[in-house]
Amino acid sequence: MEEKVLEILEEHCEEALDYDGDSMMEDGIIDSFAVIQVVSDLEEVFDIEIDAKYVIEENFCNKEAIIELVRKLLEE
Fold it and tell me: Nearest-CA neighbor of 23 among 53, 60, 68?
């Protein structure tokens, strides 16, 4: 699962893979358009629905947060 999330991230924002800070959005690594593309791909690939309430900076601050979000939604 993690590998597939990283592949999706790489497709839309390769810099996210090497980012180790606290906020990809604040640091200009990823923008809101890329987040929407990532969300769309995650929903399709993992057959999950990412409600708008989850599309917040906290869940997309780095690759680990995105992986954790997907893990959480897959367990529901």
Answer: 60
Main-chain dihedrals φ then ψ at residue 49, nearest 5 degrees: -115, 125
pLDDT value of position 39: 98
Over residues 9-61, the pLDDT tens digits come to 999 999 999 999 999 999 999 999 999 999 999 999 999 999 999 999 999 99
CA 5-35-51 angle, to 5 degrees, is 85
Percent of the chain that is helix, strand, coil (3-state, to 5): 65, 0, 35
Q: Which two tokens stand for residue 70?
A: 């997907």
